[in-house]
């Protein structure tokens, strides 16, 4: 069985349980969310004392897991066995894999097993056994692209009884990237302080999450895209005055990603806007900015910028740099990009 996240949550809320839940994928957020939900809600507090076990892959062998799953519950209908970080189990040996394969073929009807593999899939033979089994739920947690995130944020905010405008969504995506856990945690902090009846705006994001709507790396990107020297210098001077909130170690990867996507755009044949957004994995509101930047920065210049970014990444670590501060290095980079 391969339900969607929504279908799976609905089944769990109706208390329609299956013996095994195999969760895997590059996005740990949903794996943790489902595991936490089941650990919290499948058993009541009394049952948890005797019938709930949370194990970790690096500390548990497949044989121990097999034995635990075959035990009978005490004073209850089910035992819940949650195997967190299952990717850390030693499953290279055929013998270890056979314990899991054997259990998947014939799971105990009184055990609910959660197997959470983060950032990777289970071994091929284990996965094949899971696919052939009738009572194993398989859920793949896929990474979301940045162009998918604004819609995701709107849905998450709505589920919590709030509303959010487009600019605030873009600020979150630009600042936090596609890390769903970070976005969810930052929104959680905001919910504590912000009234539900008031829409979440960019001013609210700035106030409660600490992302400046005027002076951040994404406004710097926009200034660079149109070669606005005055605005770019304003922003890097703000960064220099607020180094804790604007570490160069945060700025460089984002600029590197930006100019790497710009390089990709430069190498594309003539494409429609939809195809460009798909190839670059960018939201619609970013399209004009990239197209403008592609006109202002020829391929050779973009290649130079990517080279400078790599060089600067080494220099901020202290290699071939004996006196320049982070802010001085950043100012030098921006000067070279703009002139």
How does this structure look, described?
By secondary structure, the protein is an alpha/beta fold. The protein has three domains: 5-140, 3-Layer(aba) Sandwich (Rossmann fold), CATH 3.40.50.300; 146-209, Helicase, Ruva Protein, domain 3, CATH 1.10.8; 226-338, Up-down Bundle (Zinc Finger, Delta Prime, domain 3), CATH 1.20.272. Helix content is 57%, strand content 9%. The protein contains 17 helices and five strands. The protein has helices at residues 5-13, 28-41, 45-51, 62-69, 94-105, 124-132, 149-159, 166-176, 180-193, 202-209, 217-225, 229-241, 248-267, 273-280, 287-296, 299-315, 326-338; strands spanning 20-25, 52-56, 79-84, 111-118, 136-140. A five-stranded parallel beta sheet has the order 2-3-4-1-5, sandwiched between helices. α5 links the parallel β3 and β4 (111-118). The chain is elongated, with a radius of gyration of 25 Å. The chain starts with a helix and ends with a helix. The mean pLDDT is 86.
Q: Could you provide a short overview of the structure?
A:
With 339 residues, the protein is of the alpha/beta class. It is built from 17 helices and five strands.
Short key terms for the protein model shown above:
339 residues, Rossmann fold, Helicase, Ruva Protein, domain 3, 3 domains, 5-stranded parallel β-sheet, 57% helix, 9% strand, elongated
């Amino acid at each position: 069985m391969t339900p969607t996240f929504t279908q799976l949550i609905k089944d769990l809320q109706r208390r329609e349980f299956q013996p095994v839940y195999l969760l895997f994928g590059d996005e740990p957020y949903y794996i943790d969310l489902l595991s936490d939900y089941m650990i919290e809600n499948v058993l009541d507090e009394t049952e948890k004392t005797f019938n709930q076990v949370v194990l970790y892959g690096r500390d548990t062998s497949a044989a121990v897991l097999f034995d635990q799953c075959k035990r009978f519950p005490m004073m209850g209908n089910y035992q819940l066995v949650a195997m967190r970080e299952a990717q850390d189990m030693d499953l290279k040996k055929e013998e270890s894999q056979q314990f899991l394969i054997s259990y998947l073929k014939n799971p105990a009807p009184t055990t609910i097993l959660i197997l959470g593999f983060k950032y990777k899939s289970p071994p091929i033979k284990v996965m094949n056994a899971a696919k052939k089994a009738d009572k194993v739920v398989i859920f793949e947690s896929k990474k979301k692209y940045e162009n998918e995130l604004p819609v995701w944020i709107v849905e998450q905010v709505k589920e919590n009884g709030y509303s959010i405008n487009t600019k605030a969504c873009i600020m979150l995506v630009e600042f936090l990237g596609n890390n769903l856990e970070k976005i969810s945690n930052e929104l959680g902090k905001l919910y504590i302080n912000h009234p539900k009846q008031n829409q979440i705006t960019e001013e609210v994001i700035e106030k409660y999450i600490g992302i400046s709507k005027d002076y951040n790396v994404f406004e710097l990107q926009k200034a660079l895209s149109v070669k606005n020297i005055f605005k770019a210098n304003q922003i890097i001077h703000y960064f220099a005055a607020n180094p804790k909130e604007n570490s160069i170690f945060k700025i460089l990867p984002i600029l590197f990603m930006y100019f790497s996507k710009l390089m990709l755009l430069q190498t594309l044949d003539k494409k429609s806007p939809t195809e460009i957004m798909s190839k670059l994995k960018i939201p619609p509101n970013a399209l004009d900015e990239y197209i403008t930047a592609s006109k202002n920065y020829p391929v050779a210049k973009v290649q130079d910028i990517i080279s400078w970014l790599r060089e600067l990444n080494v220099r901020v670590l202290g290699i071939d740099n004996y006196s320049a501060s982070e802010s001085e290095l950043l100012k030098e980079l921006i000067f070279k990009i703009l002139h």
